[in-house]
Every structure is written in structure tokens, then in C-alpha cells.
Amino acid sequence: MARNPITLMQLLSVLRGQVEILEQRGDAGLPVHAITDDSRSVTAGSLFVAVKGERVDGHRFVEQAIKAGAVAVVAQAAVDSGLVPFVRVADSRKALGLLGSRFHGDPSAHLKMIGVTGTNGKTTTTYLCKSLLEGIGRRVGLIGTVGYQIGQETIPASHTTPGALDLQALLAKMVEGGLNAAVMEVSSHALALDRTAGCEYDVAVFTNLTQDHLDFHHTMDEYFEAKLRLFTGLAGGKKTGKRAIVNLDDPRGGAILAACPVPAWGYAMKNQADIKAERVRLSLAGTTFTAATPSGSFAVESRLVGEHNVYNLLGAIGVALHSGATSDQVCEAAAQITNVPGRFERVSSGQDFTVVVDYAHTEDALLRLLTAAQTLKTGRIITVFGCGGDRDRGKRPKMGRAAVEYSDVVILTSDNPRTEDPMAILHEVEIGVRDALALRNHVQYHMVPDRREAIGAAIHEARRDDMVLIAGKGHEDYQIIGTKKFHFDDREVAREAIQQLRDCA
Q1: In this structure, what CATH number is given to the domain that contains residue 80?
Q2: CA distance linking residue 267 with residue 292, whole number of Å
Q3: Is the separation of the CB atoms in 397 and 363 below 8 Å?
Q4: H or E element: which one contains 49?
Q5: Distance set, CA 501 to CA 351, 419, 449, 464, 483 (Å)
Q6: CATH number of 120's domain
Q7: Could you report the per-residue pLDDT of 388-411, keeping only the tens digit for each?
Q8: Domain that residue 150 falls in
């Protein structure tokens, strides 16, 4: 809730030194009762902030917002606001988050803020951070891909990192609910589009950087620069005792470490680091390793599976230790975590083979999933996956190659085709498949565009001790075909296929 009444002048004070005010006219002493960048959401007493988006320019809707009751307008371009107070700023997108933070009472100042960024591992790392912090008595909210958790309430996620105003409202709700920490996935889109403006972080975690979202960022360097903003943004602010936690086994880890304006801990399995996993043992039952840390060495046991989860655990351990956890508290909390929704999530319905659903939707994530499966397998690996439509096309053949390199049977299918032709997507993936088959011509591959049929085919193909990997959607319970969203849950479909198999036996 906002600390009403709050005046326009009080709101604008937050921009000082951060966003330049180029023009201001009208009464700045009037009260503001709401703030929005969506003209359809304007109510009497609202401040309307006009932002130019990728598809829609909010400046076109200033007149509509005023007619709906907006009492003032903040914009980046000069617009006709009539008699309504008007403020022109150098960057209305950044101003939006700052104004939202001020309107909601600067909620990040009242929370221990942990931001996790990277291509893969963000969701699992945030879940681990939440669990480890709760192990030392913190009341922790979570914001990320799977959902937004505030106490016992879970709100479906619209974005990995919500829009600037929604984010500030969620953080304010956490403060009101008595929470004292927030762990959040911070996407590259959110950083590039200033959705996190108005948030001051205590800890920033870097998991890794591999190809994704090049439809938006265009180059890997642009993608990296967006991620880097979370760490350079740790400079300044009112909080003390900040820290960065950085994966030094990732090629970009050193550059992040060098750019950090605050103390940092590196973590690794291979390179020298402040937090290092030694004597790692992996199995389908879970993972054990010795964590060598600034607080000493201790044994970690977890039911999470795969080498990639060792990295996720190391990042979370760094956050927990920095936050005051003891090694015993870390070990106890780590042992209690069973799984993260849609991340190497096993589907068990009495079958004599393993079925795993995973969110892997990039080449690197698919490789992590497949290499984990290779380490754990006793039979064949049967991989079902697709690539999303209207997204980075460059990763499609790369994912096809990765699947063939580590699988015995590959079934190409639809992910969220959106407005693209599903078969056109599969043919682009197939380019990489055919390249890899030159060296692994024993691998079978099939193209089954209907995802339900593809999952059924994989289940019926499986024999005792095989491992079926269903990749790409993980926790998602929908499929987007065209512009419509349909209910579809890989876990449900896999269980149905297993039951059909048993009924036919």
C-alpha cells in the first residue's frame, strides 16, 4: 500500500540525481493516489507515466489517461497535457520504477534483497537461497519464473521479473506481511528495461552466461552487459555490507568479478574460488560434496540431482554464509530440499524406467540436463524437446546437435510455437540434428509436432532402466499456439501416457 496522501513533489524528489527533470509545469503539491503506466488502469487521482514500449508507445495515450482521471503526467517526450501538471524527464522508463518505489514507501530498503541473474539456474538458486535463509529464521519472499511467493500466498508469474510497478507493489506486500528478505530472479530483459529501478540489492548472484534471448539483445556482449548491470548497480545506495557471489567456472565470471564495486566471493568446482565443491558424488538419489568456504569446510548432502545443481547449491551457500548462517544450518537446510518445480522433476507412476521433466530451453541448459543424465543413466536416454516460436532462432540447430550428441533416441516436437509454423521450427532444429548424426549415426530421431503425441511416443519407446527426458517447458502448465494459450502440463501428459502403457500391458 502507498503511504497516502503523497504529493507529486514528494514523488519527484526520488528522481534527484538519478533521472533528469527537463521540464515541469503545474501544481506539484497535489496528492497522488495511484501510479500507473497503463492508461486502461487509470483511476481518479492517478499519476500517469508515459513509457515507450517495444510495441506500444504510452505517449499516445496521455489524453485517454487524463480523461480517465489522471491528475498528472510524467513523460519522456513533450506532450499536450492540457491543464494537468506535466513533468518531462530524460528517461521515463527508469523514472517509473523510482516513482513506484517512492509511492510504495521504498520497500527494498526494508528487505534483505538477493538478486540472482544468469542464463540458467536462476530458479533453482532462488529456491535454494529461500530455503537456506529460512533455515536461519528469515521470513523470505520469492519472485521468479515459477511464481511470486509471499508467505503462504503464491501468485502466478507474468514475467520472470515483473514490471517495475508490479515489482514495487509485490515488495511492499512482503514488507506489510512481515517478511524481512526477498529473493528474486533478475532477468536480462528486466535489467535492460529498468524494471528493477528503485530496488537496492544487498547480494547479487551470477550463475552463468550462455546463448539465449538474442532476439532481444542481438549480441552476446549486449546480453552480458545487461546482466552486468545488476552488479555495477551495487555501488552507492544507503545499504552497507553488500556482496556479489560469482560463478568463476563460467568464462564471464572473471569480468563480473573485476567490475564489482563491492566485496565478492567466487564459487567453482574447477577453478580456484572462495567457495569450492570438492569430492563431488552424483547419483539418482542425490548429490554429496565437501564445500570449502570462508567459514571452513563441511559436507553437503542434497536430494537434488546433477552437476549443475552443485553450482546452484554453491551460489546459495554463498548467500547463506554472507547472511550469517552457520555450516550446520546450511547442511540441515540443504538436506531438506526435495525438488524445484520443473527442474529435473521426476514423474513416477510405477514404471520401470525414469521420466524427468525439465525446463531446459537453451543449448547450455539442455547440455546440463543431458550430461547429468549421462552420469546417472543405466539404460538409453530418450529426449523429447522443441524450441519456442518467435524467439532466438540461432539456438535451434545448436539444441538439435546437443540432443543427438548425448541421446540414443531424439524426438523433436513443439514447445510454444506461438505464431510460427511448428514444422518450420522443427526443420531449423533438424539442421543441427543432421550435423550431429554424421558422427552418431546410430541415434534414432523422429519429428512429431504434436507435443502430446511426442511424449506418448517417448513413453511407449522406453524400456526397463531407460531415462526419458522431456525438456523445454518444465513447470509451465500451458502451451502457446498462435496467440492463444492452452492448458498443457508435461508432467500430467507423461503420467497419462504411463497409465496408458500399463493399461495395454
Answers
A1: 3.40.1390.10
A2: 10
A3: no
A4: strand 46-49
A5: 9, 33, 21, 13, 33
A6: 3.40.1190.10
A7: 999 889 999 999 999 999 999 999
A8: 107-336
